[in-house]
Structure formats: structure tokens, C-alpha cells
Amino acid sequence: MSRRPLALAALLAFSAAGPLAAQPAPVPPATSAPRAQGTLLRLNETGEVSRAPDELRVNLRAEARGRDAAAVQAQVNRVVQAALAKAGGVAELRATTGGYWTNRDSESREWTASQGLSLRATNATPALELAGTLQGEGLLMDGMAWSLSRDAAHAARQEAGRLAIEALRARAGAVAEQLGMEVAEIRSLSIDTPEAPMPRMAMAMRAQAAAAAPPPASAPEEVTVTATAQAEVLLRPRP
């Protein structure tokens, strides 16, 4: 058989199939946008404010000892109930009870019962007067401390944070000036404002049994609140 008819048939079949499909043009690889050129500066600065504490906390303890467990616990219960009743009549004062425990000494065979009582107030005078009265009635002083109230502590942390940011911006500008550059942007910023440290509690003291005993004295120190600002700052050459 001649090969010409076969070649002709193949050519006709190729023509019927239509033209070749267009091939997509190759896509060039994506390129990331160029980053701003400059010097990356890492800084941290601290802001600090001092505030007079506005909340007083007095910790007291009722305690009784004896051979009869029920009797010593009943005595503690009466003392704490009476103290709570007195505290309820003092304006701007909040009284809360603390831990309650009972223990028997293996040598003396005596029972000891104890319960804590906490007085918290923003007006120190009536709180101290009540504490003195309760000391005269036999309660023990476990400690006394001043602190910032929640609202005062929040305001102090806000102010300390503002001062830290101002100090950081001033420092970044000074460094840029020294290098003959300018601040382009602040890339990241974090602010840490830890809780203000609580003053140490006084050692426990046994009250004198005199009903006319003077109230405890209090001369609080100022509370220092700090905030630390950390940032990455981009410096660029001056135009």
C-alpha cells in the first residue's frame, strides 16, 4: 500500500482537531516588598510615680487556750462575733474573718483555738480606734499595712506607663540625633506595670488587758509604682 494516502489522512485528522491551545505565559516568581532601610534600635525605659497609700489593713487574731476543746472554741467564737458587731457600726470599714484552727499541745495537753479578723478601711482613724478597742478586749495584733486602693493603683500604673513611653520616645530621638538619623517608626511596643509591693507586716504583739489602751499609731510611707516600656524603633537616614 502506498504511504501517501496515510500521510494525507493524518494531515486531515490533525486539521480537524483545530489549532493548538495557547500555552500560558510563565509567571515570574513573586518578590516581597522591599523593607524600609535603616537601623533597628531596641530600647527600654522606666517610669516611676510615688503615691500616698489610701487603704489601711489591720490583722487581728482571737485566741484562747484551755483543757476543754469546746470551751476554748466557744470563747474564740464569742470574741470574734463581738468584734464583727462592733466593726459593723463603723462607717467606711469592712471586716472579714480569716482562717480558723484548733490544736492540742502534746505536752501540756491544752487546746488552742484561733481565728483571724481583718479590718480594711480608707479612713484610718476609726479603724485604728476600733483596733485599739479590740486589743483592749484581748485580741492580738498580727500586723498592720498600708496599700493603694484598686482605683488609686490603676491610676498610678497608668501614669507610670505614660512616663515610661515619654522617656522611651525622648531616648529614641536622642540616639537618632547622635547618629545623624531620624525616627521612622516604632515597630513594637510593650509595657509592663507590676503590682506595687506590699509593705511588710509587723510582728505579732500581745495586747495589754487595759480597756483604755491607746490605739495603735500609724505613719505610712509613700508607695512607689513603676512601669517599664520596651520597644523596637526603626531609624532612617535624614533626607
TrEMBL record:
<dbReference type="Pfam" id="PF04402">
    <property type="entry name" value="SIMPL"/>
</dbReference>
<protein>
    <submittedName>
        <fullName>SIMPL domain-containing protein</fullName>
    </submittedName>
</protein>
<keyword id="KW-0732">Signal</keyword>
<feature type="signal peptide">
    <location>
        <begin position="1"/>
        <end position="21"/>
    </location>
</feature>
<dbReference type="InterPro" id="IPR007497">
    <property type="entry name" value="SIMPL/DUF541"/>
</dbReference>
<dbReference type="InterPro" id="IPR052022">
    <property type="entry name" value="26kDa_periplasmic_antigen"/>
</dbReference>
